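Handout, section 4.2: multi-component inputs.
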Amino acid sequence: MRMVDLITKKRDGKTLTKEEITWLIGQYVAGEVPDYQMSAFLMATYFQGMTDEEQSQLAFAMLDSGDRLDLSSIPGIKVDKHSTGGVGDKISIPLTPLVAALGVSVPMISGRGLGHTGGTLDKLESIPGFKVDLTETQFIDQVQDVGAAIVSASGDLAPADRRIYALRDVTGTVESIPLIASSIMSKKIASGTNALVFDVKVGEGAFMKTRAQAEKLAKALVAIAKAAGVASVALLTAMDQPLGVTIGNSLEIAESVAILRNQGPADVRQLTIALAAQMLVLAGKTDSLEVATNLAEDALRDGRALRKFKQLITAQGGDASIVDQPQTLPQAKLKVPVKATTSGYLTSIDAEALGTAVMQLGGGRAKQDDVLDLAVGLVLHKKVGTPVHEGDTLAMVHADSEPQEALLEAVRQAFVIGEAAPEKTPLILQVVRPEA
Ligand code: URA
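Output:
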């Protein structure tokens, strides 16, 4: 085979065979296909798309480039959740202990934040002593003992994806649904889970800006999961304002603890319970979403989920006393209010602008190797739909030094105030299941 023939085949909108896709990924990883040819192939894919079969084969070829975790020693169905990333999305943190408290194993492999979206691992590292780098044996042992672990990827899961993603990042080919879906799924299948719930974010603060794009991605993800023998379901959820009221690492841990105490913002609670219910059904706890929802609510109400979180923190070397004393989490030196300059109703909040502001405060990464300030962030005092009076505090900026006026202004501008209350829109927009 010749790479140039595969590039022209894709450029002309034809369908590649399994053998061709396997060959091109294998040759690329072996250093036989140069970056410029792979870049041309990625651009051709960006414009021509892929069939379900092609994108599954691409995921499998990238999966085969590296290790695969064997979780078969953990009894029962193992369930994970994957979010396509949003601002203030701390759901994995309350969700994992909640589902584990109900007897379902959650081996969660998470990532770090980049750009305006935060990462679960960074958030957890604001708990003093918490370790996310476990060996494979420690990871498996902990899931067996505690029922859950949240770790960074150990071993070499889908190295082809890592190299291709780096190329996509600099060739304008990140925003391609088959490339995104195969990239996510190569790593998720490698992580050895049997079942997956996807949270596909839709809106200005998300990768997928429109509902149609998000639905397409969700369908691609569940189709690849099905081809890999992994049970799955995807929820499309709104990201047209930040999730919850905190953005920033230790602030989001405190909010997660509030959820586990059966308190906290309504949207975070609703989504945590909805995703937990889907995970419980996939794990075979019950076939009724209503029963699963009640189970999740009970475990939040009676403290089982909170106790499981303490257990998880302790098992990963962290100081579980932060659960009872969240004020011992890293705290910013300054709290600066951002106030409304007009009155009306809050009609929208630019989640991406707020995520970027937190990154500029030091709470997120502009580059992969940036070191984070875990204490800084934003606390929202208003959410979409609430009335606002001139002079009201819209958000509190938590900073370690006096924030620049431009940053405070960007935060203020992110809160859009109109004359009329906006129409209420649902948080959970759609459920996408694999085709039968
Ligand atoms: N996340 C991934 O893992 N891959 C993509 O391509 C996009 C988001």
